[in-house]
Specification:
Length: 191
C-alpha cells in the first residue's frame, strides 16, 4: 500500500496543560485526542499519524517516569512495556492482558464469594498469543516507518519532537517486532 504522511507539528510544555485527569485507555477518538494533552502518567509523549491505504492511523507513545513505554494505535490496542522493553500489559478489543511468568494472560473479572469483582488470570492459547503477537508486529513495522519518515510531523508533550523521534527509534529497536514478555505486569525492569 501507499504511505502518505499526515502533519502534526508542535511541542507543548507540560506545565501548560491541565493535569486534573489521569491517563486512561482511550475508548473513542475524543478520549484519544485528550491523551496527548492529559495523559500525565506519560511524562514524555508524542503523537504521530500516517495515512495507509487511505486510512489514517494514529499512534500515541510515551514514557512513564520509570522508563516504561506505552504505545497506543488509534484508540485500541495499547501495548505497555517495562523499562527493560519487555511486554507487561496489553489492552485489545476491550480485553485486558497482563504478563505472568513470562507469558500473557487474559484478566477476567470474576465475582468472589462476597460478590465483589476480582481479576483472575486465564492462560492464553497458542493461537490467542499469536494474534496479539501479530498485531504488535504490524504496529511495530508501521510505527517504525512513521517515526523514521521525516515528513511525518510529531506533536509532543514533555520532550522535543526530534528527541521523541530518536528515543522512539531506540525503544522500538530495543523491543523488536517480536516482543519478549515480562515476568509480571509491574513497570519495574524485571525480566
Amino acid at each position: 500500500g501507499s504511505f502518505k504522511a499526515a502533519t502534526f507539528g508542535r511541542y507543548v510544555r507540560p506545565d501548560a496543560l491541565d493535569h486534573d485527569r489521569s491517563l486512561t485507555m482511550a475508548r473513542n477518538e475524543q478520549e484519544r485526542e485528550d491523551l496527548l494533552a492529559e495523559g500525565i502518567q506519560l511524562v514524555r509523549r508524542g503523537r504521530i499519524s500516517m495515512v495507509i491505504q487511505d486510512v489514517e492511523i494514529q499512534w500515541l507513545a510515551g514514557w512513564r517516569p520509570s522508563g516504561a513505554l506505552s504505545v497506543f494505535e488509534n484508540s485500541d490496542p495499547v501495548f505497555q512495556f517495562n523499562a527493560s522493553s519487555r511486554l507487561r500489559r496489553v489492552f485489545k478489543d476491550a480485553v485486558r492482558y497482563a504478563a505472568h511468568g513470562g507469558s500473557l494472560h487474559e484478566l477476567v473479572r470474576q465475582p468472589d464469594p462476597s460478590g465483589r469483582l476480582r481479576l483472575e488470570r486465564r492462560a492464553l492459547t497458542g493461537d490467542e498469543s499469536a494474534v496479539i503477537a501479530s498485531r504488535w508486529s504490524r504496529i511495530f513495522h508501521r510505527l517504525t516507518h512513521a517515526v523514521e519518515d521525516e515528513r511525518a510531523d510529531v506533536e509532543t508533550v514533555g520532550i522535543e519532537p526530534s528527541l521523541w523521534r530518536a528515543e522512539m527509534i531506540a525503544a522500538l529497536q530495543s523491543i523488536g517486532a517480536i516482543y519478549r514478555v515480562a515476568n509480571d505486569p509491574s513497570e519495574s525492569a524485571n525480566c
